Amino acid sequence: MKLKLTLLWISILLLASHEAMASAGKAADEKLKIQGRLQARYSYETEGAFGGDDDESAFSIPRARLKLSGQTLKGDLTWVFQVDFGKGDTTLKDLVVNYRILPWLHLRAGQWKRPFSREHLTSSGKLALVDRARTDKAFFCDRDIGIAVQNDFMKSPVFEYSFGLFNGSGVKSFVVDDKRTNIPDFFDPALVGRIGYNYGGIKGYSQADLEGGGLRASLAASSIYRLSDDDGEQTSKTLVEIDSMIKYRGFSMLAAVFKNFSDNADTKNGLTAQAGFVVANRYQPVVRYSLLDGIKDDGESSTTQIVSTGLSVYLMGHKLKLQTDAGVEIQSGSSNQDYLIRTQLQFVF
């Protein structure tokens, strides 16, 4: 049923775009772009020593996405529709409309990524390792439904900003009056803001330095302020993160720190640091360190450290690349170490 509805939406958008272009005589400012992305992955995960009873290995398709985008009114009005068929389900990722009032003032509405955390905002198709660091999920990085003002910050202008009001519930579904919906049955607003500075024409939302060049840098901070928790109780939550990106002649480094000021937060502090170097415009060895500082169910502090290393081979840039990484997870108070090995092929068209 979900697949049929998704295909119906796609057909309607394609038909509407075609009719709009035809009625305008296929004017130069009317454009429709169709893109797709497939990621095929093999994962091996073990708790403790290799070869144990808890080992898991499998092939999967974590992402199989179809993206439609278009523009009109001489590019002042743009829209994006993206759906994912990966993980054995069909989910709506993006459905957003953006209107450019002024070059530095855009009004954006719909469902898309909250402007929080550089790594989360970076497309999963432009990562240097197979997937994002653990801090991404630990600090509620998610898509959401809302409205925002911004300045096309994803293109890394000298000064970037985005401020929005969102539902605060992410894109998870709810059951209200026996009907499934993505609109929560309680008011859980989230104020999300991001500001940053970019130097040297950096592409701040692509992790590998495939473009090369001299020193480029980016520094940004973002915050989420929620008025209530997931149960609708009036308990404020504040999350803050600061991130930076440096690129220089094939070398790239990403760093980010996270802080959750909520009293009942499972994870209080987070840190991610990642570095890579592109050799011959094709091969990129990468290393990443992540740290999560939280609270166990018994009230004791808990620290999780993840060290990962990998190699990305860019056969056709990000359009066709092969990535392999391996990571070890170490938890305080535990003698066991968890290992994860992944290989992924990405194809973008």
Q: Can you put this structure into words, describing what you see?
A:
It is globular, with a radius of gyration of 21 Å. The strands form 2 sheets. It has a 16-stranded antiparallel beta barrel with strand order 1-2-3-4-5-6-7-10-11-12-13-14-15-16-17-18. It has a two-stranded antiparallel sheet with strand order 8-9. The protein is mainly beta and 349 residues long. A hairpin with a 5-residue loop joins strand 15 and strand 16 (301-314). The protein has helices at residues 2-23, 118-121, 135-138; strands spanning 31-47, 56-72, 77-84, 91-102, 105-113, 143-150, 159-166, 174-176, 179-181, 190-199, 216-226, 237-248, 251-260, 267-277, 283-295, 301-314, 320-331, 337-348. It is 9% helix and 54% strand.
What value does the Rg take, in angstroms?
21 Å
Strand-pairing-aware structural class: mainly beta
Instruction: Report mean pLDDT, rounded to a whole number.
Output: 87
How many angstroms does the end-to-end distance come to?
27 Å
Q: Return residue spans where pLDDT drops below 50 for at least 5 consecutive residues.
A: 1-5, 20-26
Inertia-based shape: globular
H-E order: HEEEEEHHEEEEEEEEEEEEE
Helix count, DSSP H or I runs of 4 or more residues: 3
- Largest beta-sheet characterization: 16 strands, antiparallel, barrel
Strand content: over 45%
Spatial order of strands in the largest sheet? 1-2-3-4-5-6-7-10-11-12-13-14-15-16-17-18
The residue fraction in helices comes out at under 10%
Number of strands: 18
